Structures are given as C-alpha cells and as structure tokens.
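agent: user wants the structure for alpha-L-fucosidase from Wocania arenilitoris. delegating to structure tool.
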Amino acid sequence: MDKRDLKSLIFSLVILFSSIVVNAQDTTKKEWDVKVEVSKASGLWEKIDARPIPDWYKDAKFGIFIHWGPYAVPSWSPVGTYTEWYQKWLQSKSIFGNNKPDPKAVPKFQNEVYGDESSYYDFGKMFKAELYNPNEWAELFNKAGAKYVVLTSKHHDGFTLWPNKQAQNARHFKWNAGDIGPKRDLVGPYMEAMRTAGLKAGLYYSLYEWYHPWYNIPGDKFVKEHYHPQFKDLVNRYEPDILFADGEWDHKDDYWKSGELLTWLFNESASKDKEILINDRWFKGSRHKHGGYYTTEYETEGMEGNHPWEENRGMGFSFGYNRNENIEDYTSPKALVLMLCDLVSMGGNLLLNVGPSSDGKIPVIMQERLLQIGSWLDINGEAIYGTRKWIRSRQWSKGNRNHEPKKGKSYIGGNYILKQTINPEPGMAVKEVLFTSKKENVYAILPKWPGKKIVIKDINLSSRSKITLLGVKGSLSCKKTGKNVEITLPNYNPNWNISNYAYVLKISKVN
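agent: tool returned. relaying tokens verbatim.
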C-alpha cells in the first residue's frame, strides 16, 4: 500500500466511525420511514410518470451536454474510457471501457505527473475556471443550432459547481467551487447566460458519490442529510428547466426516496409552477420505465414506442475532456449530422457533449464540430426541429441489416453511422433514406447524393404534393410507380448553398 492509499484509508475509517456513532444514536423510527409507505400506497411513481413531457422538448431535438469539474485538471484516461471517472480509476485501481484498458494506467499517470503523495482532491484547488465565459458558450451553442443545454452541477466525485454546504459535510474539507478553485458560483452565471440566449437551461445531478463517507453506511443518513437537502438547494437556487439525474444504479427507491423528492419538486419547490422536465435515472431499474423522458448512452438504436427519449454521448469516447484522444477518436462532422438525423427519425433527441478544459474553454475541435452541425441545420433545420416520427424511420437497401457496432466494445464511437449509411461492410445493407414528418410534410434525408434518381418506397402522394430539395430553388419532377415514387434530381451543382453532410427532400401534402 503506498502513502496516498494509507492516508486515504485512515481518513475514510475515521469518518466512517464517526458517522456510524451518529447514526447509532438516532434509533427512533421517524416520519421519514412512514412517508415511504404512504408514497408506495398512493401510486407515487404512477403520478410522476403521468406528467406530460413539454412540447418544447419534443420539438427541440438537439441539446448540448457539458461535463466539467476537477477531472478537467488531469483531463486524461486511456482512449475508450470516461475521463470524468478519473477519481474512480485512480482510487479503485480498476477501469472499464474500450480497448481493454490497463487498470494501472491512471494511477501510473497520477504518480508520474502529480507525485506519489498526490490525491484527486488536490484537483479541486487546481480547478480555476479562469477563462470561464458562459456567454461565449451560449453564443456557440446557438450557432450550433442547439435548443437546450445541460451542465453537470455535481458528478460522482461530489464536487459541486455552486456554493453548497452539503458538499463538505462529513468530509471536513471544502469541496465546492464557491470555496476552492474558482472560489465563485459557476452555475448561476451559466443559467443566466443560457436563458438570455433563449436556450433552455438544465442541470445534471449525480445522486450518489463514489467516496462520500456516509454513502455505504447503514441507514438513510446519506439520503436524508446529503442527497435530498443538496438537491433542494440546487433546485431552489436555480430553478432549472431540466433535471438530469444519474448515479442511481446501486439502490431501489426504498433507499433513494426519489419519488418523495420529486413530489416535493412538483408540489412545493421554487419550480412547482413551472414546466420542469426530468429524465428517467432516479433509482435502480427506473431507466426506460419511470420518470420523464428516457435516456440512452453511447447506443445506436432508438427506443421502441412513442415515449420521448434522448441519446447522450461525447464527440469522442468520453464526456470529460480527454487530452489523450486524437483526431481519429473524434466523430466526423458528417457522422454527427447523420447521427442526429437517424435519432430524430426514430423519435429521439441528441444530447451531444462538450468537455471544457479546466480553465473553462471549450476545446477548438469541439467548437468546430458544433459550428459544422449548425451550418447544416441552418439549411435543413425544418427537417429536424418540430418533427415527429413518420410511419417508418428509414428505407433500407438490399443486404444484411444486422449491423453489430457494439460487438466487443463498451462504447460505440459516433462513426458507426457511416457504416450504416455510406460505407457498409461487404454484404451489409444501408439506410438509404431517413424520414421525419411535420403535419402533412415528409422529409426524406439522403446520407449521400443518389445521382439522377431516387425511389421513395411506400409513400402516398396527393394531387397537391410537391417535392423540393432544401437549399435549392424550384420543384423536382417525379412519377408514381405503384406504391413508390421515383424522383428525378438535377445535376449536382457544387455552387448550391447546401451541405454534403446530408441532403433533404421535402415532400409536401402527403396523404
């Protein structure tokens, strides 16, 4: 055991012992426990699940995730792993992800760069945010065509980006941006900047913390004295439009009591009269079943049914900024656009992550990717915003449709969509067309220029139907062939004001 491990173990044992003593002194059955039974009996989660998803979210389609905290100081982990999990990789000497990562890689990096007596908690003081300008962030996100933003107010390391007294309880040292590092509130200016720019402003919040001294002790101390009051402080201070919960997977709701907390949110909090939106990560087993909109993470296929859902992922293989990633680890702009179109065609949203460096700047490659997406949406946004699933999401070519991008991987890189659209393996089918719809209009999104003609299968045009290529003036000629429509395209003109990331045919007045 090295010196850092020994110091950490002694500290944890002292805190654990003091917490057990405090817990043992409080043996009375309190109102807290009684409320759980009442909540279960009254169908608490059925009421929460019945809350409608706001129309703005269904229409928005594209949002920005921001992972930012002390892990942005080292901003390093093996390629194919989550850099924001640096503390876990360091202290547990374990790791998971793509490429069979070495469990000793992060401890080795820590020792070599910061010294063998250094600690993850040192990064709190080194996390300065000296170049943080949320107005610049908001301007960039608007240019990208995003409609909402979600910032990590607290990740699994427990560090809060706002001044919060619960962040240090039981730790006996400062662990929030108000007291160390930036020594100021980072959440408030973010909320103001996003809303001033016309963006919906959301906050991510991790229910659990890896190494909080109260988390693994028996009883409800962590939930009652840490999670719930901290969550309430966050909500009442900032009244976010979205609450993205995470870190729920260890326990069911008889431990987390998230149902009670959300009842408070909707009925008593400062946001009780607002159209606040929540996700589905509130207790073990709640994903895709309970809460608000459903979430997937580094996946490729959408959710079945019509419940609103969202894919969240980074541009590379991490949410936190990873200095170890190279250009080939980043998703190409064409793939990002096609991914967005594919998700929207299945009725989903894309929450695309950026990971600022510790000084608060968004890395240039991430800025460039966002601007590239925005330039495509400037021309083709009507095929994305405000649309809904059509009767089918895509039109396949001949061949095997059973793409397996996740085989042997923990996380699927964004370029998977290129294999499914323009660059298939031998014998594999491709998605020739992706569909979205809005009222009587159908949008046929083409991943590549089809040449002279394109056949749209199983579509019923009316006598009033008209077909146009977004970004190009004039209507296109077509003819019906049974249940299909053959559309004649003009010769491709490189001077057109369109992007080659994807081409959109607008088919109006479809029956």
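agent: one observation worth passing along. The domain at 394-507 is CATH 2.60.40.1180 (Immunoglobulin-like).
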